Amino acid sequence: MSRQPVVPLAPNVWRIPLIRDFVNGFMFRDDDGQVTLVDMGVKKSGPKVIAALETIGAAPSDVTRLLLTHAHPDHAGGAAHVARVTGRDFGLHEDDAGYAAAGQGPPRDHSLRLGRLMERLSPSKFEAVAVGETFTDGQVVPVAGGLQVVHTPGHTPGHAAYLHLPTGVLITGDSIFNVRQLRWPVKAFCTDFRLNEQTAQRLVELDYTTAAFTHGTELRVNPREHIRRFLTRQGVI
User: Fold this and answer.
1) So what's the pLDDT on residue 114?
2) What CATH number was assigned to the domain covering residues 7-233?
3) Residue 58, C-beta contacts closer than 8 angstroms, at least 6 positions apart
4) How far apart are CA 39 and CA 51, in angstroms?
5) How many Å apart are CA 153 and CA 96, to the nearest integer?
6) 20 to 30 Å CA-CA from 122: which of 20, 61, 76, 220?
7) pTM attached to this predicted model
8) Looking at residue 115, what is its pLDDT?
C-alpha cells in the first residue's frame, strides 16, 4: 500500500493516492511545464491534490487543465477546491457535464432494489464545478502529447477512460476496480450496471502498457491480458 504522495507511472505521468491506494487522482506534465490533473477525490482530498503538485516541482499556476473521469463525489468531491486554487474550469465527457455543473451525481441503477434505495437514502451530491469543455468518444485532448477519450458508459452516462498515447498509460476510471484483485464497482452505485459490463470490454480493445485504476493500484505487466481474463471469468467475453 503506497504512502508516497505521488507514484510515477511513466515519464511525466503520476498517480496521486488520495485515500491511500483506494481512491486515486492523476497528473500529467507537458514538456513546457504545463500540468493536467485528472480526478480530485472526495471533498477532503482537494488540498492533497494541490500538495501533490509541489512533489513534482510544480505550482497551482502551472495547472492548465482539470479533467474528471465521471461525476461522482469520490472523484469530483474535491474538484471545487482545486478549481478555486488553480483558477481553472473542468473538462469531462459531455454526458456527465450537466451533473458536474449541478453538483449532482447521475441516477443510480433503478433495476436494482439497492440502487433505488441508495438514491433515496444517500443522494450523490458534491459542490458544483464550472465545466469549461466537454469531450466525445475518441477525441484526443492536447495533454502531454495526447490524451484519448474512451467513452465507457454504464457506471455513469458519461463515464470515460483516458489513454495517454505517448506512454501507453490508461486511466480506466471506475469500469473495473483493482482493490486487492480485479473486481466490478458496486452495482448500486452505477447508473446501468449491465451497460458497465458491456462497455468494460473496450478496455481489452485498446493498446496500452499500464492500466491505472481510479480505485486500486496499477497493473504494469500484461495489464490488458489480466483484464481480459477477468472479463472472461465474469462471462462478459
Assistant:
1) 67
2) 3.60.15.10
3) 29, 33, 35
4) 14
5) 10
6) 20
7) 0.95
8) 63
Q: Per-domain residue ranges for the chain?
A: 7-233
Residue 78 CA to residue 118 CA, distance in Å, equals: 22
Give average pLDDT by consecutive 10-residue segment, the chain, 237 residues: 87 98 98 98 98 98 98 98 98 98 92 74 88 98 98 98 98 98 95 97 97 98 98 96
Contact assessment for residue 24 and residue 215, using Cβ atoms and an 8 Å cutoff: yes
The pairing of strands 169-171 and 160-164 is antiparallel
Query: What is the SS3 assignment for the chain?
Result: CCCCCCEEEECCEEEEEEECCCEEEEEEECCCCCEEEECCCCHHHHHHHHHHHHHCCCCHHHEEEEECCCCCHHHHCCHHHHHHHHCCCEEEEHHHHHHHHHCECCCCCCCCHHHHHHHHHCCCECCCCCEEEEECCCCEECCCCCEEEEECCCCCCCCEEEEECCCCEEECCCCCEEECEEECCCHHHCCCHHHHHHHHHHHHCCCCCEEECCCECCECCCHHHHHHHHHHHCCCC
Cβ proximity of 131 and 97 under 8 Å? yes
